[in-house]
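Bench notes, afternoon.
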Amino acid sequence: MSGGPGALPTLRAKGVVGNPNLPRELGVALGSDPDPYVRLHVSMHPGLTEAERAAVDYEVKPQDRLRRLT
């Protein structure tokens, strides 16, 4: 696996954002993650309030797809 010093935390963040049981506090914290993938998924997470989701800096591109939370 390649990546710099921040690669492992980013991979962990990518792994947890799809969890439907993501604790709200963690979702809020991940809303400022440097990875746009993580921020996009956090912005759509049903466990956050509308205000918390709106506070996430993200951009939805035409090619973006969100996987279903299971």
